[in-house]
Structures are given as structure tokens and as C-alpha cells.
Amino acid sequence: MKFLLVFDFDHTIIDENSDTWIVKCAPEKKLPNGLRNSYQPGHWTDYMSRVFVYLGDSGIKEDEMKRTMITIPFTAGMVDLLGFIGENKELFDCIIISDSNTVFIDWILKAAGFPKVFDEVFTNPATFSSTGYLTVQNFHTHHCAKCPKNLCKKKVLKEFLDKQLERGVSYTKIVYIGDGGNDLCPVMFLKKDDIAMARQGYTLEKKISQLAQDLSPVECSVLVWSSAADIMSYLKLLIKE
């Protein structure tokens, strides 16, 4: 029997938001006000598409973007944690569900030497066009009113688990590690033996607390982490059990 580890990416594996970090490539390291103010809630991918067009129009090329992206710091203790998971792959299946994009995540994990830790990465597909512009698409369509229109993480997790069951793989426990508001939907899907690990002081922790105050707590156990060392301590206990 195996454990499934589900990671968010921005502010969880890396200590920044990859989509806002790319702005360091822009002229004067900032976006024009009109572009910056064009974001509409729930439509982040559409907004990032406009950002990538602006960067392309400004002559920012793939190699410059890559150089910038691989300087993003990992969250404290995360490099050790990913190393530990890599050494114990017979116990852990490990996936990423992220609202970033395939290009950014691929660059960052490969530069750090961690692509093999993760069995699958579910994120918005991105590619460079023939003219050298980065383009990004919505991950899927869904009917969940709680989630941004491009990605419902609960749907991704559910479909992954269904597919694994068809292959004869079921998990003793799911450990979901995240920080953001869009991590709440999959956390609410977890069962009582599962664990949600919410980053301290971030939106996910606050939303879970609010649910408990409203007397509709999540079904799974909740642990709060501030560095990936906390996550590693928990996983080591899990293995001993």
C-alpha cells in the first residue's frame, strides 16, 4: 500500500508565485497599469495570456524567461523534503496540481534536479509559438462554481484516483499539501483518514478555520506547516506507523 502526496506548486514547492515572478523579465520589471488592472477574478489564465503577449511584444525571448524562472527560491526545507520523497518512492506516489503552467514547472524542477520525484504534473498546458511567444491554455473545463474557470483541483484529483483504481492502485492515505484558496475544493473532497497540510498564515489555512467556526469542518485531519521540515517530520512518522 502506498501514500499519495498531492502538492500545489506556487507558495508551496516554490516560495513565490511563478506567474508574478515572470514580470521580472518585463521592461522596468513591471507591467503597464492597463494590463495589470485587466485581471478579472476566476480568469487568471486569460490574464496571463495577455501578460505573455506583452512580454513577447517587448522582445523577451524564451532563454531570458528561463534564466529568470530558475532563480525562484524553493520554500524553506523543500529541497530536503523532495530529496527524502525521491529516496522513498516505493512508499509515495507524488503529483502536482497547480494553476501555474507546464513550461514554468518543467524548467524549475529540471533545473533543481527534481523531475523524477513527481509521477504526474497537472497544470495549464503552455508552449512557445513559432514566433517565440509563450502561450497558455486552460487545463480543462468543469462545472464547479467554487473554482477558477480553468482548473478545479478536486476534479483533477478525483479523475487521477479513478484512473489509478483502474490500474489496481489504491492509497492508504492522501496527504494534500497546499496554501491557496483553490486548494480548498480538493481538501473538502478528502476523507477522514486523509490529511490536509495547510501552509501557516495563507488562504487555505484561513478558509479551513472559517469552515470549522461555521460548524462545517472538513472531514480530513488538518496539519499546519510553516517549513517543509514540518511536512518531512510528519511523513517520517507516517512511514513508521
Automatic annotation (TrEMBL):
It holds the Pfam family Put_Phosphatase. The keyword Disulfide bond does not apply. Transmembrane segments: none annotated. Coiled coil: none annotated. Mg(2+) binds at residues 8, 10, 179. Belongs to the HAD-like hydrolase superfamily. PHOSPHO family. This is PHOP2 phosphatase. The gene is Phospho2.
